[in-house]
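Lab notes, practical 5.
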Amino acid sequence: MYKSFRDPIKGMRLMRVNQLLLTLHILAAATWIGAALAEQVIAKRMDSSTPDAVTDRFAIDAEAIGKTLFAPSAVVLFVTGVILVERQHLGWTQEWLLIGIGAVAAALAIGGAFLIPEGRRLAELARTPGHDSAEIRDRTRRRFLVARVDLTLLIVGLAAMVFRVGG
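Output from the prediction step:
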């Protein structure tokens, strides 16, 4: 993985930095995918018998999870990934890397175009006195159907990177 160095101390420092970056990269992916899986499990358990207050709270909490877990983990994943590719001289044309980048880019596009704005709208609606909880329930169900596609893309990207498909 690392070419021989004339200075073994420098080589050890580079390895340690790369190991730290890789650890952060993996933790970011685990956070993003883990939070998405947890939300899917909770959303799947909600049905027409779920009390309105619980449905409302879930809409508000899902928005908070997006702000506190999804957004930061996406940034860390992107930044550490770019730095790792550059530091390890991997090149940007390897199949596993392109699949991973494509999957993350698609997930970010789905999140930015639909999941984030709809999550904000649902949380705002849940905070509005006298709102229609059935509307929140229906829109949440639709939102989490799209989120399942987003999650599937992330898992495909993760698998491509772990198994270094085509590499």
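Observations recorded by the TA: Helices lie at 8-45, 52-87, 95-127, 133-162. The chain is about 80% helix and 0% strand.
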